[in-house]
Amino acid sequence: MGNETPHPVIDDHGRFSWYELLTTDMEAAKAFYANVVGWGTQDVPAPGNAYTFFTINQAPVSGMMNLPEEVKKRGGSQCWIGYVGVNDVDAAVARVRQLGGSVYLPPTDVPEVSRVSVVADPQMTTIALVKWQTPREEQPSVWGTPGRVGWHELLAADGERALTFYSEIFGWEAAGTEAGPESSYQLIAVGGQTLGGIFNKPARVALPFWLFYFGVEDIDAAAERVKAGGGKILEGPGEVPGGWIARCEDPQGAMFALMGPRFSKAVGYFERAAPGVRSGPRSRQWYW
After folding, report:
1. How many CB atoms lie within 10 A of CB 30?
2. What is the pTM of this model?
């Protein structure tokens, strides 16, 4: 072990670096995601609210807490929130306000961990900002790495304006587009690395939101675990360049997605709960 080369420290600015589930039943969600994604769990002390880490080899990769009362009061519900690194949380929050966004949690210090803020873009999509006290090391990752988020997808009210906003805050760049019958799919990148896509949500989707794709070892087996655990498969598994994806809802109603290879002999089955949203990672002809 003494000869191992440490992973290089990365520039967090503009990169998703943490994911947090707000839920109405922590114990049920803990068991559900541990089974579906293969995460370990670790309860940690947190002032005023219980908190649980989801882990890979005992290393935290995401977290979970009870849905806060203030979120309920403003009409929010159970969901996954992504944290994006910034060089200066206070400056980024000021820029969010200048560009017409909202601030739900002002810049706040998490002792010995980070400085964070929870904001909404001008289209009222929630996202969090974070500045870590200790620089993170880069973790090797490929599309669909089990337990890791491999794709970030924004269903926006106006994709073009959303990209302009996030480019101002995070330095994101357009990385090409793919045509679709309802909306073009705009790929987004930071530092030359494609991290996800943005497209206009259909009118039947009530509110814009971020959808995160968790890597699994076998998409069919994971989809079966979703259903067995009381969740729903909203669409899929379906094939996209590089692998297979499924869009899902956990038993408490939080939406998430899975990505990974297919090892079963069955090919091409689709289960659709209802018409819904467009496109998965780099997929032009796949819809909810």
Report:
1. 18
2. 0.88
The helix or strand, by DSSP H or E, that contains position 162, with its residue range, turns out to be helix 159-170
Would you say 249 and 267 are in contact if contact means Cβ atoms under 8 Å apart? Answer: no
* pLDDT per residue as tens digits for the range 5-28: 455 556 789 999 999 999 999 999
The CA distance from 74 to 62, in Å, is 24
Three-state DSSP state, 252: coil
Specify the fold of 149-260. 2,3-Dihydroxybiphenyl 1,2-Dioxygenase; domain 1 (3.10.180)
Domain boundaries, the chain: 16-132, 149-260
DSSP string covering 234-258: EEEEEEETTEEEEEEE-TTS-EEEE
Main-chain phi, psi angles of 219, to 5 degrees = -65, -40
Report pLDDT digits (tens) over 108-158.
998 889 999 999 999 999 999 999 988 766 555 567 799 999 999 999 999
- Name residue 75's amino acid: G
Domain 16-132 and domain 149-260, same fold? Reply is yes
16-132 carries CATH number 3.40.640.10: no
